[in-house]
Amino acid sequence: MLTSRERCYRAIKREEVDLIPINLWIDVPEPLNSLLNYFSFKDSEALLEHFNIDFRGFLPGISWLGIGLKGGYKEETYVDLSGRRLHKDMFGVVSVTSLDGLTSMYVDHPLKHIEVESYHFPEVKEEDFSYVEKFRKKYENYCVIGGTLQSFEEACALFGYNEIFRLMVLEPRKVEFILDKLFEITYKQAKLLVEAGVDQVYNGDDAGAQTTMLISPKQWRRFLKPRYEKLAKIIHKGGAFFHFHSDGWIEPIIPDLIEVGVDVLEPIQPEAMNIKTLKEKFGDRISFEGGISVQRLPFKSKEEVEKEIREALETLGPTGYVLRPSHTILRGTPIENIVTLYDAANKFRKRI
Known about the structure:
Elements: H1 4-12, H2 32-39, H3 44-50, E1 55-57, E2 69-71, E3 76-79, E4 85-88, E5 94-97, E6 104-108, E7 122-124, H4 129-138, E8 143-147, H5 151-159, H6 161-170, H7 172-196, E9 200-203, H8 217-223, H9 225-237, E10 241-245, H10 254-260, E11 264-266, H11 275-282, E12 287-292, H12 302-316, E13 321-325, H13 335-348
Parallel strand pairs: 1-8, 8-9, 9-10, 10-11, 11-12, 12-13
Antiparallel strand pairs: 2-7, 3-4, 4-5, 5-6
Helix pairs in contact: 4-7, 5-6, 5-7, 6-7, 7-9, 9-10, 12-13
């Protein structure tokens, strides 16, 4: 029997595995708390062990492992004249949270008021290195993932989405300047993570909506591809894998991601891209993680959940694949469906 770390390594390299690895992302506080209560578990680690999750570290809804940031702008929460509760983060981006606390949106962007050359960036918190090192040793038999700043998404928050897309056409120098500064942060974080011994560095930025890309492949290749290529070299030089995230439909740039050196692509949302087509076209050159619809999971019967799990394992396995929901499991998803998902994963990943 392989360790989880060995199993994940072989899966990413598309070598023979004993079991298809599985991972967990879940929304907080719900349905995570209800799931913990369902099993009478005191913490998330007990849940990860129960579901035989092969990963530790950067698991949204469970834990965050990475090299943090310090400095930047003063973080503060305040109420404006209209009664909205606002929060300004260390990048100076202001957001408002809905009354039910479930969603938030940006309402002010610092680069609307500050020239790009005058903007004050946070710094990498290098003292976090020792914590990552200790975490690596604690979970030596698991595949450990470390997260980094998602630079393009941060640039969108700094400018505002409409503004950054306008500037890409009319004043690209401004966008290049900010992306260079943000990616320098990402590069430093990645270098420290691989030196601390993580197996995968998580990065990437949402470039896809449900049926189209947010920016054209041409713009993506100009502004982002060279920066991801540099990041891949840093990660690979340290002996780790490049785990790339983008929601939505991004099929036109998958060959570019392979060329850049991406090892794992997630979350491959089945509503946006056909998982069978992806495996047939790209499965010999890149590995996948995800593929289980969180959009449909709340509405399926237990039998339908089990069927989807088996089909995903058969389609995307037996190697080059990690089974995981296509995003965080959402509030309102029946606990029985979540349990069925992982019971089925553990049942069928041994047989595919």
